[in-house]
Amino acid sequence: MCIRDRDEMAAVEALHASGCTDGLPVIVPTTERVERMILASGQAGDMALGTMGPGHGMATIEKVAVAAVMAGCLPDYMPVVLAAAKAVIDPVFDLTEMQATTHCTAPLIIVNGPVRHNCAIASGYGALGPGHRANASIGRALRLCMINIGKAQPGSSDMALLGHPGKFSYCLAEDEENSPFPPLHVALGFAPEQSVVTVIGAEAPHSVLFAGDGDNPNAYKALLELLAIGIANPATNNAILTGGTAVVVLNPEHGAILTKAGLTREDIAQEIHNHSVLSQAQLQRYAGGFSRPEETERHAFTGPEQLLVMMAGGSGLYSMVMPTWCAGTHRNSPSSVVVEDAFYCELPG
């Protein structure tokens, strides 16, 4: 429902009081603002996209447009927001279960292709931090959809014990220009010229510290081991529950170290997979009720294809890994959707 209250501050307070916000101030979704966002999508406002759990509300173009307005999106961002909404609606994403879990998981939005430039979605320094309007508002728009369409409320239907800041907004682009690998969406089977949004339920970024040693040609092996420790140590769901996908975000310096050693993205994923294993002694010590006496070891991943390896961030000592939840019918799988910007209607100034 679009709010038509002329008193903007009163309208904002009404939205807070009704539980329609993420706790931060929002832009009031007036009829004019929402209609402008719908027009930017190039599609009819009543077009149904599917239901969002756990409340199973029907997502329409109009409802997503309301969330985009509230989040502070520019109309240019609407096709990306729609792609993200479609990605979490896809049953493979297990949205209902992910919204209701006690685990600290949030939808990480990864953007590839030309739309990165069209919307100025950041991929370099501080891409997951403040100062990037597109990243912040696109990620926030998806969260507001999950709150107001999916009806996820903390402590009742959103049961995360503590959550993490990515539940406000969690969005970045891959730094395709500085990456030594083909773009992530190409590795996932899409065409280079397509714009694609990939969403995966993930924990907050875990820092992986590594200083390269130019005099040691085998130093890259330690980096691979550290990445595996970060993403599948015995404290993670990936190591204990297994079966889920996880994300590895290499900074340019670490990416250069690995490619200098002759490794492709597939090689890197394979090596991390090989190192992401717990011994029988570790299982007995750390897995508790999740351990099985007959196990001699446990791999965190069923194969290297479960590791999404990408390039982003500034160059330096730190790469990031995002462990995941590893539950739900589809084991917390990523979901990728093409951005349908061909429908986009450019608005007059």
Structure characteristics:
349 residues; 4-stranded mixed β-sheet; 13 helices; 12 strands
How does this structure look, described?
The chain is globular, with a radius of gyration of 21 Å. The strands form four sheets. A four-stranded mixed β-sheet has the order 4-3-5-12. Helices cover 34% and strands 16% of the residues. The two termini are 26 Å apart. It has helices spanning 8-17, 31-41, 61-71, 78-89, 95-100, 115-118, 133-148, 184-187, 219-232, 237-240, 252-260, 265-275, 280-287; strands at 48-52, 57-60, 106-112, 171-173, 196-202, 206-209, 246-250, 277-279, 297-299, 307-311, 318-322, 335-338. With 349 residues, it is α+β, with helices and mostly antiparallel strands. The longest helix has 16 residues, at 133-148. The mean pLDDT is 95. β1 and β2 (57-60) form a beta hairpin.
How many E strands?
12
- Strands of the widest sheet, in order across it, are 4-3-5-12
Q: What is the percentage of strand-forming residues? A: 15-25%
Q: What value does the average pLDDT take?
A: 95
Structural class: alpha+beta
Order of helices and strands: HHEEHHHEHHEHEEHHEHHEHEEEE
Give the radius of gyration: 21 Å
Low-pLDDT runs of 5+ residues are none
